[in-house]
Write a structure and sequence with these properties.
The chain contains nine helices and six strands, in the order E-H-E-H-H-H-E-H-H-E-H-E-H-E-H. Helix 1 crosses helix 9.
């Protein structure tokens, strides 16, 4: 019997691109045999800002049924896959706000020895995708987490070209998530589940 694996997909999305990728990664992780929690970071922007962008308002309404993330989701997870659009080469304030609430879990060692990975989106090809994921991964080093990135471990990675994590160029929201991005999401999800399972089984065998 294979080792059970819990994967939390924790994301923030304003206009829906990251929501689409997050759902794909969650579904791919489930197909790979994991138990999955899909969770969204709480919105911090004022309603006036949301209302000024129809796509933003539509995404808020469409994702209302997805539970907001809580620290318990981090405790439950064997692997955490974070998603955020890039904001000036970094993750969004909304996702950072959640991460900043995890000090107690960090101090008690409950964030260590888990697998972590990340995904992102930007308006342009050079809009900060790599720096956003690297900034996220700096946090994981402080957790004592174990990074599992896609690298160039599958031929499809030479098509999408991002070894740091799944990413998508969305333009002004007019470039929908397509097969290249969805393939990258599948490769990343399967790799996270595979290595989380191996790590968990190995640690259990040692204990």
């Amino acid at each position: 019997m294979s080792t059970p694996v819990n994967v939390a997909v924790i994301y923030y999305s304003s206009t829906g691109t990251i929501t689409t990728i997050a759902k794909a990664i969650a579904e791919d992780a489930e197909r790979a045999g994991a138990q999955v929690r899909l969770r969204r970071a709480a919105e911090l922007a004022p309603q006036s800002a949301i209302d000024s962008n129809p796509a933003w308002a539509a995404n808020i309404e469409a994702t209302a049924s997805i539970l907001e993330v809580s620290p318990d989701d981090m405790v439950w997870a064997d692997a955490v896959i974070f998603g955020s659009p890039t904001r000036y080469g970094n993750i969004t304030a909304q996702l950072k706000q959640f991460i900043d609430t995890l000090g107690g879990l960090w101090q008690s060692g409950q964030l260590a020895d888990k697998v972590y990975s990340g995904f992102t989106a930007s308006a342009t090809a050079h809009g900060g995708q790599e720096s956003t994921l690297l900034a996220l991964y700096n946090t994981i080093h402080h957790f004592g987490g174990i990074l599992v990135t896609p690298g160039y471990t599958d031929p499809s990675k030479f098509v999408d070209g991002n070894p740091y994590g799944t990413s998508h160029v969305s333009g002004q929201g007019d470039i929908p998530v397509g097969e290249v991005t969805l393939t990258a999401a599948r490769v990343q999800a399967e790799r996270v589940v595979k290595f989380t399972r191996a790590l968990k089984a190995g640690l259990a065998a040692e204990s």
